[in-house]
Amino acid sequence: MPSSDFNFQKNHFQRFGLPQSFKLDTAQLELAFRALQAQVHPDKSAHLSDVEQRLAMQRSTLVNEAYQTLKSPIKRGRYLLSLQGVDTQEETNTAMPVDFLMVQMEWREAVADAVQRRDVAALEQQEARMKSSARELEAELAVKIDTEHDFEVAAQLVRKLRFMEKLAEEIHSAYDEIDN
Amino acid sequence: MALLQISEPGLSTAPHQHRLAVGIDLGTTNSLVATVRNGISVVLNDEHGRAMLPSVVRYTADGSVVVGESAQAAQSDDPGNTIVSVKRFMGRGLSDVGDISRLPYRFVETLSTDPVRPHGMVQLRTIAGVKSPVEISAEILKVLRARAEASLGGELVGAVITVPAYFDDAQRQATKDAAQLAGINVLRLLNEPTAAAIAYGLDNASEGVYAVYDLGGGTFDISILRLSRGVFEVLAANGDSALGGDDFDQRIYCWILEKNQLFAPEARDARLLLTLARTAKEQLTEHNETHITAVLSTGVLIDNVLTQAEFEAMSHNLIQRTLQPLRRALRDAKLSVEDVKGVVMVGGATRMPQVQHAVGEFFGQTPLTNLDPDKVVALGAAIQANLLAGNQSRDDWLLLDVIPLSLGLETVGGLAEKIIPRNSTIPTARAQEFTTYKDGQTAMSLHVVQGERELVKDCRSLARFELRGIPPMVAGAARIRVTFQVDADGLLNVAAREMTSGVEAAIVVKPSYGLSDSEITRMLQDSNQHAKDDMQARAMREQETEANQLLEAVQHAVEEDKALLEPAQREHIETQMTALRAALQSADHLIIKRAITALNEATVSFAQARMDKSVTRALSGKKLSDLEFK
Q1: How far apart are CA A157 and CA B75, in angstroms?
Q2: N or C: which end of chain B has fewer CB within 10 A?
Q3: Biggest distance spanned by C-alpha atoms of chain A
Q4: d(CA B15, CA A151)
């Protein structure tokens, strides 16, 4: 693409020509991502000058970043809130309902148990439980952000989803551990 | 140079001229070069009609270097000066090489004085002096380059060089350095399984999820790709960069030693037996048993029969070792075996029946072997080189590859904090903020690592650098923003900036085991490849154009965004601009190129700041209702 046509200032939704909402047409996102990458990817300017190649790297990096952010529900939620000037305070705000924390602890123990017993089936079961719970939180997040514009509650939901994400990472490495 | 607004597109040669570009498969055992001719990818043969160049380099007393078949023929007679499987040493230190007593080489561990590169890449003492794996690999590349230029009748515009998908940053950088040393312009480092997928996918117009199982001479890769409407998207890559066909030879070799009660044979006999082991392995692809016979220098007679069943039993756990990365790659791609539409076999080692059987069983389908597993990587690389050189005007495709291993930083307690997770689509960048640990801490040491393990000591150390001049503050008050940028070759750049004071440090990560720029410059000067006047002249013109273009762009950017520059930073940029203007007078394209690179590097953080500025401008203080929808 001609150098002047790429606008670094667009936000991620504008970049792909998508409406700025939590609800997202993932098929459309993927199409838009591929179409844009087909224009800006460094492979398209490998025969041009170093200057052009560096520019292509930055553009392509930005397009990848935008795609990864919108594709992942938790990142999308966090990003939408940041556009509203709302910080999700995932590192600092640790206030969580007790029952939620209890469930988290229970799940974590279940994962540790499964690793100890090298029980892949138990791990899969726990993963399914975690995923279905994450789906529910995401559905709630869509309502809070898109319909009710309740960003404080939305931030709390993102914090909860972060717990799920950490658990997912733990389950992922647990599979590797059992495999070793 | 990372400036954001450039009006002029890059100047290059005439648009309709076919640019000579090749794909090079720099293999552990064999290397190949291929090109696209009349729209078809073909492997280029040597004058004897041979496609494969054995990746063997022999240094002789008279200073000449022999590469390929003749070097291979001499390996039993002159094992210490005949380097085989040099790819295993690329970007590796002595401790990575493993049991060196089995190898006939005299290793030298060089301790670099450069603080940024604490450990040297392993080097080998030969009759012609100490040689690094980069130099040895460059000899192989020079032969392939000469073969290509003779065959195509002109100078190459560039080459795509393939690397194992599971190569880390140090190994990739070493490969790129070797190409540079051989006088080859690297259009792209391309992952071997991805190259194979291109050759297959474009050939068969495939759609769906494919697995590429690539067992080469010394490396194992598994890549999971999704092919759809002209896009090759790598979903996950995994592997083992120290497992390959060589290990199967080694199993047979150990079996021969055991059968004949031999202990520590001398180098010449060891080399002979290893060659016989390889032949036996190849024989067992077609036959149920094979005879191994030899007379050693000690007069000992070797006469054994090895059956396919025995070979299968002794190599069982090697094959099992390939299945674990396979399971991981599928999990990372969030897919199961049933989602995989086809399995492509790459690498000579996949000819072994037990490998095909194990892979077929794992996926529940017969693997595809309709393209020659020895040639498919080079063929795919040539197709990509043709595209990158700008020859493919219609029907082009898009390749989205990933970084195979996570990149991170060491934090307190020797823990590795991941900044860019494995299987991120490249190019990619990620910034993370860190803070000080002690009150009044004014410097921070950054240690860049690559790998999946939690402890730094279990990851590969890529580089160390220091950020100095942090204003004294209470512990935890400083905000140090570290930016990782991985380019389309999978190579990393790191920059750090203290946010409250603007103190900066940046580094191109080609360190612990890489070569410094000055080392490469020295090697380039040593190399007579660069003596050719016509080539000099062309390179001069290109560098001049690039230099002028860059100077103009920087000038423009500095005028436009003065506010983003600290006085010291601006001075630094201006110094480099002056240096580049002076270099232009030197009539030496290498000097100009160095000066261009220096100016580019001097402007990295400025460009970053310009990008940050435009990103922040887009996000700060706007409400949903203020933003335009497109």
Answers
A1: 66
A2: C
A3: 59
A4: 54
Cβ-Cβ contacts under 8 Å, A170 against chain B: none
Residue B10 in this model has a pLDDT that exceeds 80: no
Q: Which of B139, B168, B169, B192 does the annotation list as catalytic?
A: B192
**Contacts with B205 (C-beta within 8 Å, 6 or more apart), sequence order:** none
Interface test with B, best of A31, A40, A54, A149 (most B CBs within 10 A): A54
Per-residue pLDDT, A65: 94
Cross-chain Cβ contact B487/A8 below 8 Å: no
| Cα of A34 to nearest chain B Cα, Å | 8
A residues 63-92 lying closer than 8 A (beta carbon) to B: 64-65, 67-68, 82-85
Distance CA A33, CA A35 (A): 5
Nearest-CB residue to A48 (from B9, B487, B614) = B9
> What type of residue is B324?
Q
Shortest distance, CA B388 to any CA of chain A (angstroms)? 5
Return the number of other C-beta atoms located less than 10 Å from residue A109's C-beta.
11
Distance (Å, rounded) from C-alpha B338 to C-alpha B342? Answer: 10
Are residues B488 and A82, on separate chains, in Cβ contact within 8 Å? Answer: no
What pLDDT is recorded for position B598?
85
Nearest CB to A49 within list B452, B549, B629: B549
Q: Is the ipTM of this complex over 0.85?
A: yes
Q: Where are the beta strands (DSSP E) in B267-360?
A: 289-295, 301-307, 342-346
Indicate if the pLDDT at residue B110 is higher than 80.
Answer: no
Give which of A7, A28, A57 to mutate to test B binding, by max B Cβ within 10 Å.
A57
User: Cβ contacts (< 8 Å) between B608 and chain A: which residues?
Assistant: none
End-to-end CA distance of chain A: 47
Q: For domain A98-179, say whether CATH 1.10.3210.10 is its number.
A: no
The domain segmentation of chain A, as residue ranges, is: 3-71, 98-179
Distance from CA of A99 to the nearest CA of B (A): 30
pLDDT tens readout for residues B368-427: 988 899 999 999 999 999 999 998 766 688 999 999 999 999 887 788 888 999 999 999
* Alpha carbon distance B489, B487 (integer Å): 5
Whether the predicted pLDDT of B69 surpasses 90: yes
Does residue B458 have an active-site annotation? no
- Domain A3-71 -> CATH class: mainly alpha
Q: Tell me which residue of B217, B170, B211 sits closest to B26, measured CA to CA.
A: B217
Burial (CB count within 10 angstroms: exposed 0-12, middle 13-18, buried 19+), residue B87: buried
Query: pTM for the full model?
Result: 0.81
pLDDT surpassing 50 at residue B516: no
Q: Which two tokens stand for residue B45?
A: 């043969």
| B260 has pLDDT over 80 | yes
Active site residue B249: no
